[in-house]
């Protein structure tokens, strides 16, 4: 069985590729300058990382799914994610990137806002595809960070580096929004199939087997991460995938409640709730009354 490299430091990554470490908690890397090129390995990331792939030179796998990692794409990884890398040949890949340890941003504004950059949780085969102009912006942000790392450290260094990291992440958020727009014809098809899958979930006995439907359940159907799936649904509809699911649950619940031959407890079980009071709580919050009160109207 292949060993998993637990990547807990920047220096570990640099040693993997034979690169120099300039800072213990952050690095701008150019893998075309690697002096060591491993061909097949698996990394458990303990740092944040973004890479711009400039040519196709190998494959990435996140879990059982291949990453859509072609020329001109950006991939991003967060602490805790495990990625398998298979290089096509033992030559330095043309790829540039940024790695930074969570401790580097801890306590600052970026550390508090890092969860906002949902693309770090895209454990899917959907990478970020950049235009030539966007590639230039990405590389320019890296150049600014690298320039600051090359200067003598002073009281402004960390603040300026964090601001430039934040700028890069903000651009990536914009680029992902653009990608959702330009691929909307694909995502509309997913939205339609999502609605079909929601209907199918409640047409059988899946709720009694699996409980309430989850975003992950449907995201897995499309080989997407829950975050990516949720973001594209919200981009298309203005509502989150969870809101979509909740509305479906309420719709089915209303139909079931009007069946006088079923008790509220029986309906709760049929819908996938573990306890009847969970349905009552959701109904009260969303509809403004209890299931029993709704039945009596």
UniProtKB/TrEMBL annotation:
<keyword id="KW-0804">Transcription</keyword>
<feature type="domain" description="HTH araC/xylS-type">
    <location>
        <begin position="196"/>
        <end position="297"/>
    </location>
</feature>
<keyword id="KW-0238">DNA-binding</keyword>
<dbReference type="Pfam" id="PF12833">
    <property type="entry name" value="HTH_18"/>
</dbReference>
<keyword id="KW-0805">Transcription regulation</keyword>
<dbReference type="InterPro" id="IPR018060">
    <property type="entry name" value="HTH_AraC"/>
</dbReference>
<protein>
    <submittedName>
        <fullName>Helix-turn-helix transcriptional regulator</fullName>
    </submittedName>
</protein>
<dbReference type="InterPro" id="IPR009057">
    <property type="entry name" value="Homeodomain-like_sf"/>
</dbReference>
């Amino acid at each position: 069985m292949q060993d998993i490299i637990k990547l807990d430091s920047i220096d570990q990554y640099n040693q993997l590729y034979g690169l120099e470490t300039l800072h213990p908690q952050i690095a701008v890397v150019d893998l075309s300058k690697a002096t060591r090129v491993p061909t097949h390995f698996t990394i458990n990331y303990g740092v944040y990382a973004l890479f711009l792939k400039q040519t196709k030179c190998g494959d990435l796998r996140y879990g059982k799914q291949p990453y859509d990692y072609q020329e001109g794409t950006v991939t991003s990884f967060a602490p805790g994610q495990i990625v398998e890398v298979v290089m096509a040949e033992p030559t330095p890949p043309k790829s540039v990137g940024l790695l930074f340890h969570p401790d580097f941003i801890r306590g600052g504004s970026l550390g508090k806002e890092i969860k906002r950059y949902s693309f770090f949780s895209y454990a899917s085969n959907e990478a970020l595809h950049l235009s030539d102009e966007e590639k230039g912006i990405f590389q320019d942000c890296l150049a600014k960070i690298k320039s600051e790392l090359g200067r003598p450290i002073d009281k402004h260094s960390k603040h300026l580096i964090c601001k430039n990291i934040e700028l890069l992440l903000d651009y990536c958020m914009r680029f992902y929004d653009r990608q959702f727009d330009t691929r909307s014809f694909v995502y509309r098809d997913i939205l339609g199939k999502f609605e079909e899958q929601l209907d199918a979930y409640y047409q059988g006995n899946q709720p009694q087997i699996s409980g309430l439907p989850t975003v992950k359940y449907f995201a897995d159907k499309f080989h997407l991460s829950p975050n990516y799936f949720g973001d594209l649904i919200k981009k298309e509809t203005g509502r989150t995938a969870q809101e979509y699911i909740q509305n479906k649950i309420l719709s089915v619940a209303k139909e079931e409640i009007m069946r006088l031959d079923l008790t509220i407890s029986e309906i709760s079980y049929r819908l996938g709730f573990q306890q009847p009071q969970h349905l009552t709580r959701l109904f009260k919050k969303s509809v403004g009354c209890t299931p029993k009160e709704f039945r009596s109207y």
